[in-house]
Amino acid sequence: MRNDTRLSRMLHVLIHMGRHEERATSETIAQMLGTNPVVVRRTLGLLKEKGYVRSEKGHQGGWTLGKPLSEITLLEIHHALGTPSIFAIGLSTDHPECLVEQAVNAALTDAFEQAQALLLQRLGDVTLAQLAEDFDERYRVAMLP
């Protein structure tokens, strides 16, 4: 199963947007991500619906932030992208009458629910501004002689 990288990719894009004054075109973003501009427009369209980005059409058009990075959490972007499944691990349902399968699925379901709740809480605690600050510090350290 392929990993869903939309969250990390969109966080990357949004932090770049926060660092640049000029609008970013779908073509520029697509080139940065190694994807198609249509995919960029479709994905950023989900964020636009929630007010996290704005777009302007035309020759001077492109994408800009709709809110400051400090007002956007990772959880909000996760939800805007359609809350894809956090875990790729699934339950076996081949033999629902099997008591062993029932016991295994009950234990796994409980573990998945607890892990997902913790992860979603953590995503809600982190703003994009905090990620940008982490980048700034990493950049500063990387540039030291």
UniProtKB/TrEMBL annotation:
Gene3D superfamilies: Winged helix-like DNA-binding domain superfamily/Winged helix DNA-binding domain. Coiled coil: none annotated. It comes from the Bacteria. One of its GO terms (molecular function) is DNA-binding transcription factor activity. GO terms for cellular component: cytosol. InterPro entries: Tscrpt_reg_Rrf2 (IPR000944), WH-like_DNA-bd_sf (IPR036388), WH_DNA-bd_sf (IPR036390). PANTHER family: HTH-TYPE TRANSCRIPTIONAL REGULATOR YWGB-RELATED (PTHR33221:SF15), WINGED HELIX-TURN-HELIX TRANSCRIPTIONAL REGULATOR, RRF2 FAMILY (PTHR33221). This is Transcriptional regulator. It comes from Pseudomonas fluorescens.
